[in-house]
Specification:
It is a single chain. Mean pLDDT is about 85; it is low at about 1-20. The protein is an alpha+beta fold. The chain has helices spanning about 1-15, 20-35, 40-45, 65-80, and strands at about 45-55, 60-65, 85-95, 95-105, 110-120, 125-135.
């Protein structure tokens, strides 16, 4: 009886993984894109409109078309090419993921915030992307 129970329990765990493949895929895409400065790969996962904030460039759009956001990011990555990116925190709730990370470029460090929502067709899309330059201690 306990063998049957153990089998059923392990089967249930296998059916409900902590991170679903679609969620892991978009998080991996975000990390890879930010490490390589690939605006095209990143923007392919944008929602139709996105909130984009890049404080050093005085960019603060609440609802920007994905194609325009891609052009702005291409320019940002050319001006501030990535030396490294790593996630600092990742969290999620129903139909929502949020991550923060550190983007390093040319002696500057940016805090990055990414908000990802599940769409009506159960895909995940990036809804917000913020780059905020960290202040250096004096």
């Amino acid at each position: 009886m306990s063998l049957l129970f153990s089998f059923m329990f392990s089967l249930l765990l296998g059916l409900h993984p902590a991170i679903r493949p679609a969620e892991a895929d978009i998080t991996q895409t975000v990390g890879t894109s930010l490490r390589s400065g690939d605006a095209g790969q990143l923007s392919a996962r944008f929602a139709k409109t996105i909130e984009l904030v890049i404080d050093t460039e005085k960019i603060d759009f609440k609802a920007l078309q994905a194609t325009h956001a891609e052009l702005i990011l291409r320019s940002f990555f050319r001006k501030y090419p990535p030396h490294s990116f790593q996630f600092v925190y990742r969290g999620s709730s129903d139909h929502l993921q949020y991550s923060t990370g550190t983007y390093e470029t040319n002696g500057q460090v940016y805090s990055v915030y990414v908000l990802i929502r599940q769409t009506t067709n159960h895909q995940y899309a990036i809804n917000a992307l913020h780059f905020r330059r960290e202040k250096k201690d004096v």
